Structures are given as C-alpha cells and as structure tokens.
Amino acid sequence: MEVDAAGEGKRGEQTSPDAGPASQGGPKGKRRDAAGFPKSRKGKDKDTKNSGRRRRTRNEEALEDGPADADASGEPKVSAPRLPKRMCALLIGFCGSGYSGMQIQQNAKTIENALFDAMVRSGAVSQDNADDPVKVNIARAARTDAGVHAAGNIVSLKMITSVPGVPDMIARINEELPPEIRLWGTVRVQNSFNPRTLCDSRKYTYFFPTYLLIPPKPSSALYRVLTEHTASLVPTVPSPIAEHPFWAGGAATADSEDMLRKRAWRVEPPQLAELRAGAQKYIATHNFHNFTVNGEFSDRSNQRIMKNIVIADPVVYGETEWISVLFHGQSFMMHQRKMISVLVLACRTGTPPQIIDELYGPRDVFIPKMPALGLLLEEPIFDSYNTRVARINEKLTPADADFRPPIDFEAHRAAIAAFKQTHIYENMRCVEDRDGLFDAWIRMVDGYAGNDLLYLNPKGTIPPAAVIKDRHRKMPFREKRLFDATSFPDGKQSMDAEEEEEEEDVKVDKRKRVDTEG
Fold first, then answer.
1. Structural domain that includes position 396
2. Catalytic positions (predicted)?
3. Measuring CA to CA, how many Å separate 271 from each of 278, 341, 398?
C-alpha cells in the first residue's frame, strides 16, 4: 500500500491494519500508535530515506561534477552542437564485388559498414552515435549475400538531415562513399518504419550466357549417367541429349576449343520457349523447400509467393549471347539462385517443365546453385506503405512536418541505369569474357557422376535414386566457393585459388536462413 504525505492511504486502497475504525475518534485513515492515538511527527527529523533519488538534469550534473571532457591544460572542450535526427529511408545502389554482403558486421568489409562510416564522416551521423550503428536503428529491406549487386535497396536509420555549411547532404555523403556504392536519395519516413517488414515485394534479375543451354558433352560423366537412366525407363523413350548437333564430331575436343564454339552459339526459338514455359511454373504460391538450404517440407516459412517472371529476348554482348530473367516475388530465400539452376538444367537436358511441380513435393533433392556473378537486386517495392502515407498526405502539404513522401526509385532511373552499365554489367561481362566463369560452373556440373541429378529426365519425375534420405548428409557433389564470388582482380590465377577451396557442408538453422533472406 502506498501512503501519501499526510500518511493517508490512497483512495480505493486498503488502509494499514494498525489504523482503528472511525468510531474510535480521530480522522479516518490516520495512523495510530499502540494506545490507539493518532501518531504525530512533531519533533521528529524529516525523513531523508528517498532524498537524492530524483534524476539529476544534465545542467545539474555539469555544475556538480565539472566538465566531463577537458584538454591537457584542464580547459573544457567545446562540444559540437546537438543536431536533430530524423528517421529516413536511404535509397542506395552498389556493386557487391569484393564485399562480404550487405549487412553491417564487425571486422568485415560490407556495404553497410562503408555506408555508415561515410555518414559519420559527412556529419549525417553524430560522433556520439559513431561507435554503434544500433543507436541509429539501422535496418535494411533486403540482405544480399556476399558479392551480390543491387541497383536499388533501402536502408533506414535516424540521420541528421541538415548540417550547417553542407548545402547538399546527399552529394556530401556520396563524396565519402567509394564509387561502387551510391546514395540515390533519402526519404523522410514514419518513426516506426521497418524496411524489411514493410516491404511488399522485391525484384531480382539474373543474367547468364545462353551457351549454358547446350546439352552435356558426350564424354562427360553427367551425359553418361543421364543417358543410362533414360535407357532404363519403361516404356522406353529416346534420350533428348543424345546426338545433339553442337557436339557432332566434337566430343573429344579440348575445353578451350569448346569455349570458342560456345560463345558463337545462339539459342533457337523452340528452346527459348521451353525456358519461358518452365519459368511460369514458379508463379503463384509454392513450397520452395528444395530451393534453399536445409529446408523442411513441413516448415510453413518455405511457402513463398512469386508474382511474375519475365525472360527477355537474348542479347549479344561482344561474342557472347546473354539472357536476363526478372523475378518479382514477395520475398526470396537463402540461395534461391537454385530456381535459375533448375530452369537451365531442365532446359538443356530436355526435362519437361512439370519437374518443377515435382520439386514442390515432400521429397528432398539436391539442386546446385548458379554462380553469384549473374544475380542483381533491382529494387524493393513499398506499395502498401506508399498507399498509407498517401492517405495521410491528403490534407497536408510537403512543407508540413507530418508529410511523408512515397518510397520510389523512379526519379533516379537514369542515374541507376548508368551505374548498372558501368559498375555491374561491365564487371559481369569482363569476368565471363576473361575467365569463362559460367563455363567453369557448367563443366563442374557435367563432371558429376552421382545419382542426385537423375530427376533431369524426359519424363519429368523424381526417381528414388535421386531422393535424399538425410538432408544433413555429407554431399558428394562439392560446390566450389569460386561460384559464390563476383570479383577476381588477378584473373584466372585468382579463380584457380578460389577453386582449390571447396564449400563446407554446414548445417544452416532456420534462424540464420531467415536473417539472410530478402
């Protein structure tokens, strides 16, 4: 029970059991001694039990404790004025080559590390908050893996939007950023804004050379395994990869000779139509447990929504023909580059698109990852948030404090297009033209002699031999770290060094998978 200054119990609360009834005399609720008389505090010292409990103000602390910071002579340092912070969404783009992913990490080169440091140096983040990004509530819409690029992404944080002597804050921050990271603009958002949870959907594009659609070389292990399995099917069906005209008379040629002919090869319209038909199987809600790491069929978080997939017409750059595939989905799972792998591997082996329906089922199978080099985050979409702030803005003007602009990359399209061409596309094509990264990947796949890829067959079914009984087994198919990289500054020598290291089969728990999704 709390007691007020006069010793009376608060209204509605039970009084002390020492208090006598009102009929015994004295005001109701007074504290009484053992004889029943009201207690008196006359002559008693003032209760100092709670003295000093009130929190001191900064001015009181400064007067009592003296200056906290002083130079060598004992003179107090002049502290920088406190500037107001505002919750903002930062529209950024970056080339991920050479970076260990998007999210800020200690002792690592990441996109957010570089961005945060640039904002501290430019004054957008105060020195008081420079030691810990958590103080400014940093968050992002999509966390990209190491080496993955983004034409558009959103980072939110509390930033100083106006610094004395800085007429253009965006230009000032870009001065401190490396050229492969750009800040397109900032948007004032609501204080509760969280870019990951408020993002409606995301768009990714994957680029790859069309020569990946050429069937396996007749002398390869995969060719032998697939043709033997096709010959065992009942009723018998012809092998769709046998006697392909590209390999006529060239089964014993060297890889370097094959590479020259692959660059000159062009995809035919029927095969392009098959690729597009397979892509349509991804649209709508499906269970993508086979398209991520250690995904369980019963885990509802593996249910994802693909809104649309567009495969553009092939385009020739230099000597090589390229295809781009635009994915628009609600969210994407860790290592969901496997979606492209299935499209490419099914198309090059004559596997019907229905195999994708089979992969949504409860059986676990192995799908290799496509190289990270071809992956690009186009932009996150915030339609629901924009609709909500538009209703709020109806009675406001841009000059009002509560006005919140929509999050939209449209005003920056020209700058983004120029950035993609210079920092992303040219790097991608340079690595491929110089080192043949995609060819190295497809030769790695074709060199596999196990049964894990037997679902690539003309019936479009998953045979028992291809089903994985233990998802955490040691995989016989060893994926190279090489194909998770997007930057090889030393050319072929750097690629060979990467290829010597094989990726460990690490068990990835659900929490880690969720943290890396976007």
1. 204-504
2. 145 (nucleophile)
3. 11, 16, 52
Residues 6+ apart with CB under 8 A from 399: none
Q: Is the model's pTM score more than 0.90?
A: no
**How many other CB atoms are found less than 10 A from the CB of residue 188?**
17
What's the CA gap between 173 and 182, in Å, rounded?
Answer: 9
Peptide bond just before 235 cis, omega within 30 deg: yes
Residues 478 and 330 both lie in one domain = yes
pLDDT digits (tens, 9 = 90+) for 52-89: 444 444 444 444 545 545 555 566 555 567 888 899 99
295-311, pLDDT tens digit by residue? 888 888 888 999 999 99
Active site residue 145: yes
Whether 387 maps to a domain, the answer reads yes
Q: Are residues 372 and 421 in the same domain?
A: yes
In angstroms, rounded to a whole number, what is the distance separating the alpha carbons of residues 181 and 175? 11
The C-alpha atoms of residue 89 and residue 140 are separated, in whole angstroms, by 9
Higher pLDDT, 2 or 301: 301
What's the chain's Rg over C-alpha atoms?
Answer: 33
Q: Are residues 170 and 248 in the same domain?
A: no
Q: Which residue ranges are tagged as binding site for substrate?
A: 204
Q: Which residue has the tokens 């030769």?
A: 443
Band of residue 347 on the pLDDT scale cut at 50, 70, 90: very high
Distances (CA, A) of 143 to 63, 103, 227, 243: 47, 6, 41, 44
pLDDT above 50 for 429: yes
Residue positions forming the annotated binding site: 204
Amino acid (1-letter code) at residue 195: P
